[in-house]
Design brief:
The protein is built from 4 helices and no strands. By secondary structure, it is mainly alpha-helical.
């Protein structure tokens, strides 16, 4: 049963990958430039780097990480789709045979 649930979770996760990124993928240089612009705004707002700078800077770091992650996602999207297509028949078979698998695995539970 755990295998079936795991297979369903993987299928659901992989199905969602295709619809996440729709816009033009940024470049690493664009991510870095946006990060520097954000950090410059934080410095201008709080040149003494007090508590408000820490919050602002943390937002800049999070935005940079999200930007970099988008690049990584787009580079791996083809690979992810191939893995999904390869796993899909196996997952569909597990779903189709779920009652039989459950009875076989847990004979005293049914």
């Amino acid at each position: 049963m755990r295998t079936l649930l795991g297979a369903l979770a993987v299928a659901a996760l992989l199905t969602g990958f295709g619809s996440v990124a729709q816009a033009q993928t940024p470049t690493a240089a664009q991510c870095t430039a946006e990060s520097k612009t954000c950090d410059a705004a934080c410095n201008a707002a709080d040149p003494k780097h007090s508590f408000s700078y820490a919050g602002c800077s943390a937002k800049c770091v999070a935005k940079k990480a999200a930007c970099d992650s988008e690049i990584i996602y787009d580079k791996s999207a083809d690979w992810t789709k191939k893995q999904y297509n390869a796993a899909k028949p196996w997952v569909e078979e597990k779903i189709e045979n779920a009652p039989a698998n459950t009875k076989h695995t847990y004979p005293n539970q049914n």
